[in-house]
Amino acid sequence: MSGISLATAINNQWVSNMGTINCVGILTSGGDAPGMNAAIRAVTRSAIYNGFEVKGIYRGYRGLITGEIVPFRTENVSNIIQHGGTILKTARCKEFETPEGRKQAYDTLVKEGINALVVIGGDGSLTGARIFAQEYDFPIVGLPGTIDNDLYGTDHTIGYDTALNTIMEAVDKIRDTATSHERLFFIEVMGRDAGFLALNGAIATGCEAAIIPEISTEIDQLEELVKNGFRKSKNSSIVLVAESPTTGGAIHLAERVKNEYPQYDVRVTILGHIQRGGSPTAHDRILASRMGAAAIDALLDGQRNVMVGIRNDEIVYVPFSKAIKYDKPINRELLNTLRKLSI
Ligand code: F6P
Predict the structure, then answer these.
(1) Among 27, 191, 217, 300, which is least packed, fewest CB within 10 Å?
(2) Widest CA span of the chain, in angstroms?
(3) Strand pairing category for 237-242 and 209-211
(4) Residue 298 sits in a domain of what CATH number?
(5) Per residue in 44-83, pLDDT tens?
(6) Residue 332 within a domain
(7) Which pLDDT does position 233 carry in this prediction?
(8) Tens of pLDDT along 6-19?
(9) Are residues 110 and 182 in the same domain?
(10) Do 100 and 238 sit in the same domain of this protein?
(11) Is residue 90 part of a domain?
């Protein structure tokens, strides 16, 4: 008997002794993130390796309600690790926010014989998972899949590193034209209510400032920088702005500066959904692979209603209640570094 089949046989027995879980459903939900496919592959292969049946659920919670479900074998997840997006498709599903929608979803799970779920998504998706898990006492493990990096309890989320690299490449290109024309650019990046992409994107590209929702005084700092003409010898300036009602966004800030300081040649770029696409970086592929395997380990361990996280390069399990409830703090050392290096 080979090593793999021995492990499968042992785990099969262990699983059947446990008498509860034999079929795992996987879905992706909310905004897609590069590395979701690597996570789907890891969950599927690791589940099969451990003797579980696997079913792929299409279009997030919507597919759970409408029953868009297919059995997954190892071949279903071949050649996907390198692709952005999600082969399972994704959606933001309003019906799942209602008790009626969740009841339909539960009925589908019973009909399909699925007795555990792995949900890959961000804050909203894991909030839905938590409510459902409590309501139906259903085992769910979450994987943090979002470019925003805004989930508490994990150093990184799947997709964040790729999005950061996409931002870096785009800003580097804008720097060329900004320098040639001696312009001031405001570049808006995603992140919903979090400034991780903006702050680290600014450090990675040598930006003059980052305006992030977590630190409101940054707008005063910007005012100072603009008033003092940045550094006189600089012939281009780039400010990264996190999208958020708190920052007001890049268009709003650029208008303010244009009105008050007409001597600046100001331009705005909104990077938009380009940040969500593309082939995942090695970091995201490895993170998603580790987290996907860890999701199945968690189910084998009898854990439920936890999000898989990574802290100091070690896999951790974070209760949904914490991952969703707490705000992940910005590291102020990064902010100081940006200020020191942008003089
Ligand atoms: O949560 C991921 C994210 O890309 C956010 O950064 C952004 O605010 C939002 O999704 C955009 O959502 P949509 O694609 O639905 O417009």
Answers:
(1) 217
(2) 77
(3) parallel
(4) 3.40.50.450
(5) 999 999 999 999 999 999 999 999 999 999 999 999 999 9
(6) no
(7) 66
(8) 334 344 433 433 44
(9) no
(10) no
(11) yes
Cα 124 to middle of ligand 1, angstroms: 11
For residues 202 and 279, give the distance between their C-alpha atoms in angstroms, rounded to a whole number: 22
Residue 143 shares a structural domain with residue 75: yes
Q: What is the dihedral of CA 175, 180, 183, 187, to 10 degrees?
A: -20
Q: Which two tokens stand for residue 46?
A: 């690791």
The closest-lying atom of ligand 1 relative to the alpha carbon of residue 122 is 1
Same-domain check for residues 44 and 99:
yes
Bridge-based pairing of strands 237-242 and 266-270 is: unpaired
Residue of 92, 150, 164, 190 to test ligand 1 pocket, by largest number of atoms within 8 Å of CB: 190
pLDDT, tens digit, 9 for 90 and up, residues 230-259: 766 677 899 999 999 999 999 999 999 999
Domain range enclosing 197: 161-276
What are the beta bridge partners of residue 25?
55, 117
End-to-end CA distance of the chain: 65
Instruction: Give the tokens for residue 64.
Output: 């759970």
Q: Is residue 235 part of a domain?
A: yes
Ligand 1, atom 15, residue with closest C-alpha = 31
In a domain, 211, yes or no: yes
> pTM above the 0.90 mark?
yes
Tell how far CA 186 is from the center of its chain. Answer: 24
The verdict on 268 and 316 lying in the same domain is no
Cα–Cα distance measured from residue 132 to residue 104, given in angstroms and rounded to the nearest whole number: 11
Kind and range of the H or E run holding 310: strand 306-311
Residue 148 is among the residues annotated as catalytic for this protein? yes
Domain count, the chain: 2
Residues 11, 149, single domain; the answer is yes
